[in-house]
Amino acid sequence: MNHHTEEKQAWNATKLFVVFAIIALPILLSGCATKPDHPIALKINQDMVLVGGGEYVMGSDAPEASKSERPAHTVNVNSFYLSKFEVTQELFESVMGSSMSFFADPNVPVNNLSWQQANYFVERLNELTGENYRLPTEAEWEFAAKGGNQSKGYTYAGSNNIDDVAWYVGNANNRAHPVGLKQPNELGLYDMTGNVGEFVQDAFDDGFYRFSPVDNPNNAKHSDSGLSHKSVRGGSFSYDADESENFRRDFASQSIIMSDMGLRLAKDH
Predict the structure, then answer these.
(1) CA 112 from chain center: how many Å?
(2) Where are the beta strands (DSSP E) in the chain?
(3) Are 55 and 195 in contact (CB under 8 A)?
(4) 218 or 14: which carries more pLDDT confidence?
(5) pLDDT of residue 18
(6) Does position 61 have pLDDT exceeding 50, yes or no?
(7) Which of 68, 193, 198, 202 can pair with 219 through a Cys bridge, CB separation 3.0 to 4.6 Å?
(8) What percent of the chain has pLDDT over 70?
(9) Among residues 81, 82, 74, which one has the least CA distance to residue 216?
């Protein structure tokens, strides 16, 4: 009798264990499983370059530097990711459905858009992929353009000869070109000089360098005014060589649409 009772108890215990395992296993697996990356995110992330954080001299004291590009000042930036390429029309339209690009071609940077539209694209992209892409800050952008910790001190992003690395007024035939056709810079980034100008987070302030923080400066400002000016970096196909050095700054109102404006994606490390 006791032997029969023990068998019954053992059988009940086995059944309870099996039931527990059936219930618990999916819960455990769901906790361990990671959500697969969105196909668009996979493509973007494989083209991201890790820019190791460091210290550099931002701006210039050269005689040809403008007031907004002075003084040369030391800046520290944290590590971040930056895309090898400017956002192409193919990527932009895979998120937004279409673009108003003046120079239509899937491999040409999206162009003919405003800073506001660029940020709306980034918002939609993040909603779609679950990622946290963003525009780079102006300080991040210049650090990366100069080659980051691997900088060789070139005038342009990757060379002292602008024709090696950029589509600019001297060779572009007044149009944007497919990404990645010129030589990359020290970090493997393409078209940081020329092709299309690149929007950054920062509001443009011609006196910001005089009071800039040393660590991760960012002059991002929210504004409901369409005339609010935002910084644009890298020159473009319509800029001359003496307007395209790595330290050069330009600006545009956040709502203006221009055929030589585009963007490049960044992400926190």
Answers:
(1) 18
(2) 48-51, 54-58, 73-77, 80-83, 197-203, 229-233, 249-253, 261-262, 266-268
(3) no
(4) 218
(5) 47
(6) yes
(7) 202
(8) 86
(9) 74
Residue 199 has pLDDT above 50, yes or no: yes
Nearest to 122 by CA among 199, 212, 70: 199
Please write the tens of the pLDDT for every residue from 24-35.
445 444 444 456
Kindly report the length of the chain: 269
Q: For the packed helices 39-46 and 89-96, what is the interaxial angle rounded to 10 degrees?
A: 160
The distance from CA 265 to its chain's CA centroid, rounded to whole angstroms, is: 2
Residues 6+ apart with CB under 8 A from 261: 111, 112, 113, 114, 115, 196, 197, 199, 232, 236, 252
89 and 99 Cβ atoms separated by less than 8 Å: yes
What are φ and ψ of residue 50, in 5° steps? -80, 120
Q: What pLDDT does 178 receive? A: 98
Tokens at residue 129, please?
A: 């992929």
| Encoded amino acid at 216, one letter | N
Residue 76's DSSP bridge partners are 55, 215
Tokens 């001190």 correspond to 153
DSSP for 24-61, written as a single string: HHHHHHHHHPPPPPPHHHHHHHHTEEEE--EEEEES--
Q: Among 48-52, 227-231, 234-238, 241-245, name the one with the lowest average pLDDT.
A: 227-231
Question: What is the distance of C-alpha 262 from the center of its chain?
Answer: 11
Q: Is 188 left (phi over 0), alpha (psi -120 to 50) or beta?
A: left
